[in-house]
Write a structure and sequence with these properties.
Number of domains: 2
Strand content: 15-25%
Radius of gyration: 19 Å
Strand order of the largest sheet: 2-1-3-4
Structural class: alpha/beta
Number of strands: 8
Distance between the termini: 22 Å
CATH topology of the largest domain: Rossmann fold
CATH class of the largest domain: Alpha Beta
Largest sheet: 4 strands, parallel
Order of helices and strands: EHEHEHEHEHEHEHEH
Number of helices: 8
Helix content: 40-55%
Shape: elongated
CATH architecture of the largest domain: 3-Layer(aba) Sandwich
Length: 253
Amino acid sequence: MKAVLYVCHGSRVKKGRDEALAFIEQTKPFIDVPIQESCFLELADPTIEQGLARCVKQGATEIIVFPFLLLAASHAKKDIPLELEKAKFKFPSVKFHYAKPLGVHEAMVDILVERMNETGHPILPGSSVLIVGRGSSDPQTIADFAAIRDLFRSKTKLTDVNISYLAAAAPIFKEELQRLHHKQPTQLWVLPYLLFTGILSKTLEKEIQSLQSPESIILTGCLGYHPAIRQIIDDRIKEADSTGGCHYVSNHG
């Protein structure tokens, strides 16, 4: 019997954890797999090991592990695969498939634009935009984020579109925010490329409020629950199931 284990990042902020779990609960009815469980990579329970055990307890003989992450950084490439390597010894009779994370996708850019429209502010042609990511030392993640920026530029026809990170990569959000604010654009949009509310999204609010005249800055909501993300998840699960889903997992042929 097949199962899906959704691996969320985890957060110290309860609201962020609750949002992730609520998203998955809304997604489950659209995923054609009989056993579906959720877990966290860090900072919360159930752990990956506990999540896998729950699937096996319900009769799973095949588990598709979906990293509910935006991009393929070290968590997706190293941390989760390491846990799966351990699981292969603990559950030797279970076949594991490992799906890709959400990744670069045009629909994700559509959600950013939707979040802008939800603020009620018109998007003026000369607007400056700052897309903010979590950050990673992985070069592929940096390249992927640049691809997202380029997609956004292409879709919106806005020219002053910038990217920044909250940690582990440059430019740092605080510095880029100050640089753009100093230019005094007609509008400065700050778009969190984050799935859910958490400590990082609170950091954005704090930095914006620390500036003089923060009212000229428009902060949108996080990506949050969206049917388009649900569809990407379904696609990733199906891809892993059909190909054997061996991305990043060693010792698999």
